[in-house]
Amino acid sequence: MRPFTYERAESAQGAVKAAAEIANAKFIAGGTNLLDLMKLEIEHPAHLIDVGRLPLAQVEDMPDGGLRIGAMTTNSHVAADARIRSRWPVLTQAIVAGGSGQLRNKATTGGNLLQRTRCAYFYDTAKPCNKRRPGSGCGALEGLNRNSAIFGASHACIATHPSDMAVALAALGATVETLSPSGAARAFPILELHRLPGETPDVETHLIPGELITAVVLPPPPEGGQVYRKVRDRASYAAGLASVAVAGGNIALGAVAHKPWRAADAEAALASGASPAEAIAVELNQASENGRNGFKINLVRRLVPAAIDQANGRSA
Amino acid sequence: MRTTIIVNGEARALDVDPRTTLLDALRETLGLTGSKKGCDHGQCGACTVLVNGVRINSCLSLAVMHDGDAVTTIEGIGTVEKLHPMQVAFLTEDAFQCGYCTPGQICSALAMLQEVADNWPSQETTDLTGPIAFTDDELRERMSGNICRCSAYPQIVAAIRSVAGEPA
Predict the structure, then answer these.
(1) Most exposed residue of A34, A184, A300, B57, measured as fewest CB within 10 angstroms of its CB?
(2) Which residue, among B120, B132, B148, would best test binding to A if mutated, counting the most A CBs under 10 Å from its CB?
């Protein structure tokens, strides 16, 4: 690990101020992804601002029947919250599908959203990767790309976003709240947090430098059933090959794109009377493959109708 | 950088490079070598310790992030003279071969049983609104963050089950 300096933030305002003033500073909360990447020298911040003890770990009822989840709430506490288990169960199911008990006890809501891809070429510093070293190329394009994206990829990057939690939040239409270095707070839909890779896969979100996620807000749950399903190479503690969150008529896919992929075309088809199989076929019209990840198209074709049926109480 | 961590009930003042992980502080600075370094990337669970009663991977946390925290390692769970019932169960059920993963397995198991007692769900929990039926599938899923390269898994399940009791 390269040397860095460390401070514990006393307030959110102080944290964003420090992040704006100190070159190459990063926030750290749980640290489970950042420290892993720092050991590999994929991440090398000069300064860490520890936001883990900021008073942003509450889960509060909202006047409209929604729920505000503080950004420092651990994944374990969110998954265990009785309100979430009864009204937004897809979120609990998604969180407990990710990581291990130890990791979920440390990982935070904000950090989970900002975790980085598990693409093997991003992790291997001997290989080209436009995300890790802009301009160096993409080793996955013609390489071991079994885990790569089938939606929204570019010739510069075919990496996927690894979060399960974010897929459920995308299906639930959650809002992200942030604090900017200027002191201004803002809120925006979670689908506007992450970017597609385009020509700049190293720029992964629409956050401005030094902007801190302070909370995620769930709107009241949509009408209809909810379910999260994840397919992976082993039964537990593995990244997904494909996953799907269904919440009423909303469908989001995981492990298939550079961001949680809201299947808007499939949703529209379902709303106009298509069967689940017909609906996902419409979505897959825009899918593309790079060789070894081609199986994901068929996987999604089978997974999504099964999940929709399960959410609607039909056997699957 | 100065930091004070309460380790197994005793306040320990440390002066560490910020890069020092909690695991390295325990092992290298404090000489508590019960917690093991397996992968050093949060994948194997050999470094599992309890922080304020909650299990974490000590390799994926910085010592300086734990100022004032209460850390329990295997040395704080039991001693050779006075073994913890979970340690006795691992011996009785022959729940290890090389033993390298065992401290992490035991720390993880104890905290895991508390998580079940607190009714935290896992992906094996089919009814999210009722009490947890603590089946062997639940037990295995909740221990999936602890790898045993000798593959003593059936005996580990038996050891934890003997402490936890049969499912209701």
Answers:
(1) A184
(2) B120
> Tokens representing A120?
């093997």
A15 contacts A27 by C-beta, under 8 angstroms: yes
Q: What is the per-residue burial (b if ≥16 Cβ within 10 Å, else e) of A20-32?
A: eebeebbbbbbbb
State whether A103 and B108 contact (CB < 8 Å): no
The dihedrals phi and psi of A261, each to the nearest 5 degrees, come to -105, 105
**Closest of A146, A161, A154 to residue A254, by C-alpha:** A161
With a cut of 0.95, is the ipTM above it?
Answer: yes
Contact A99, A112 (CB under 8 A): no
Nearest CA in chain B to A77: B120
CA of B47 vs chain A CAs: smallest distance (Å): 10
- Cβ within 8 Å of residue A80, ≥6 positions away: A92, B118, B119, B120, B121
Residue A315 is predicted with a pLDDT of: 63
Residues in chain A: 316
- Nearest chain B residue to A79 by CA distance is B121
Token representation of residue B5: 């961590």
pLDDT in tens, A22-80: 999 999 999 999 999 999 999 999 999 999 999 999 999 999 999 999 999 999 999 99
pTM: 0.98
Residues A123 and A147: beta-carbon distance below 8 Å: no
Q: How many Å apart are CA B148 and CA B158, to the nearest integer?
A: 14
B147, two tokens: 């790898």
To probe the interface with A, which of B57, B58, B141 has the most A CB atoms within 10 Å?
A: B57
Calpha distance A79→A89 (Å, rounded): 9
Closest residue in chain B to residue A8, using alpha carbons only? B65
CA angle A248, A251, A254 (to 5 degrees): 140
